[in-house]
Amino acid sequence: MDAGEGVSAATPTEEMNGAGNLMDFLDEPFPDVGTYEDFHTIDWLREKSRDTDRHRKITSKSKESIWELIKSLLDAWSGWVVMLLIGLLSGTLAGVIDLAVDWMTDLKEGVCLSAFWYSHEQCCWTSNETTFDDRDKCPQWQKWAELMTGHAEGAGAYVLNYFLYVLWALLFSFLAVSLVRVFAPYACGSGIPEIKTILSGFIIRGYLGKWTLLIKTVTLVLAVSSGLSLGKEGPLVHVACCCGNLFCSLFSKYSKNEGKRREVLSAAAAAGVSVAFGAPIGGVLFSLEEVSYYFPLKTLWRSFFAALVAAFTLRSINPFGNSRLVLFYVEYHTPWYMAELVPFILLGVFGGLWGTLFIRANIAWCRRRKTTQLGKYPVLEVIAVTGITAVLAYPNPYTRRSTSELISELFNDCGALESSQLCDYINNPNMSRPVDDIPDRPAGPGVYNALWQLALALIFKIVITIFTFGMKIPSGLFIPSMAVGAIAGRIVGIAVEQMAYHHHDWIIFKNWCRPGADCVTPGLYAMVGAAACLGGVTRMTVSLVVIMFELTGGLEYIVPLMAAAVTSKWVADAFGKEGIYESHIQLNGYPYLDVRDEFTHRTLATDVMRPRRNDPPLAVLTQDSTTVEDVETLIKDTDYNGFPVVVSRESERLIGFVQRRDLTLAIKNARQKQDGVVSSSVVYFTEDAPQLPASNPQPLKLRRILNLSPFTVTDHTPMETVVDIFRKLGLRQCLVTRSGRLLGIITKKDVLRHMAQMMNQDPESIMFN
Known about the structure:
- The chain is mainly α.
- It contains 28 helices and 11 strands.
- It has 3 domains: 87-317, Clc chloride channel (Orthogonal Bundle); 343-426 and 436-582, Clc chloride channel (Orthogonal Bundle); 605-759, CBS-domain, CATH 3.10.580.20.
- The chain crosses the membrane at residues 77-101, 162-184, 204-224, 236-252, 264-288, 341-365, 377-394, 450-470, 477-496, 524-549.
């Protein structure tokens, strides 16, 4: 993988930090100064001031000529162009993924003889022999056993179909994990924890690169088709962010400024959710509520535009063939009643408890994978989990089909034309009513049979998802969580419906459920349960409700959805504040300062700063008495990201701060291009050269790379304030002074370690800078 891909960075302007247009050893800033190392945090303030300088320069130049004016207009429009491109590409990729998943999922069961690239549904659309009752059966579509042996029914055919189903599943998952392992290790997982960390200002090179984009798209299709308990929604956010990063590299405004690049990535995340769920507004709210760290108003409008273009592109591809953006479109005809809020809130409680159980069990399993031999055999693990999933899933018709189809069936209302087992009610022979409003009826044997199978499917999904999420293949969590909730919701819905039918004289049903009326819609309970479980795992609220009603078109059911989402969040928060993504960020030790974390301890900056009492003194540079050799030795002997510059070692009066990478590049550049710079040359950061004897070699001026306005706090600043400053200004480090004298330094890593220590966690778990 090319380390230069992904989130790379930038050159400063000549006027950075008020250094002015000084005649240094080069008139142009040398390449790569101001860029960041891999696994380091960006300095948001520096990026912002750099962009302001760039903007000021373009504005002043635009008055000089027509050509410069056109260039400035193009620069202003580049943001919208990038959004258009992101929307088009992510919409197209999502459409292709949907179509490919559909075909490959059906390939495990059989093949279309008239055209092998058709899925089961498409194959029977084109057939003339299909009847409405047997719309799944047509001569063109044959199961594998029928194709090979000529027998469609019987034990032999069942065993052969079973065997081939497992075989295809194993083949797909083996291909997926092998491709990830060989070509793009970053393409595994859901991607949202890493995207959150990157958007907070961390650099993971190659995470959003071209290879990752290509492999993630291909392996996502394979992983979802293998029938594992995972979804494609989370990974689609990663895919959209890869598209965003790809198009950023076309415009220097974004490729050379890490802060600006992150604004584009925030909007790309919105486009990702927009195509994953066909929910453009939900996507914008998801980006705002769940993934973004810095979300100015301009980014809100651009996210809206990117989500719109992405949804429009997906709609024109029409992957589901129902002229809708979504698979689960439902239309319920009955209103909901106040008494139903009780089961809705109970579903919310279930969602919160399932969320807590899932997060704890999944994190424990992932930690075990990290710390034991298990982590060394990712391919074996994927094969084993796929094998177990396929073997257990095939006998149960609800787990055999793709999870999206299962949710779609659970959301469905039983109309007169439904052939599903869930709709096997005993009809009243005297019934003469319009087709869409069927009264509550007693459940037939098919419904009771379906309830058993759904109960088994629920247990299976709950257990298997814990082991599936976090394996070395692309795996989303939205669809499995929704499936757990939808199964539980449908079971509760049928129970309430049958109670209302058999006991309509009970006081709770008396007021709103007359005999012969259609009172309870089990599909609505499935929808509410799905929202509750998804909320319990991710802790989303606003965006979740909006995604759910955009996803299903059930606009009048906002109140039940809100009740369930809020309840599930409260219940889950009672057991622990972190959602699944924050827990994975903690597990991986990424330096992520969560905006939602409260810091309430009464510590001061002096307790956290380094050097501590028994540490060696702070590594500093002086303004005009350090030689090139001293600087090179300091860089070689330490691994700090930067060094404070002081007047002299005796006075310790602070002048500024210089980044390690800039120093290294500046000295390397000077040695190549400036005559007379040797190891004994004096490095100076002042305006004028120091008075040196004539015999001394030529001094080296490095004032341009000096940040003259580093952020400082006094030693008695409360840590509560320091944490707030780091969080809101996106600092990398801040210097601690007393009466202008330098005492120490606090980095983002120090802040995170201190917070972990205060919460009785292991401070060494924070691994990066």
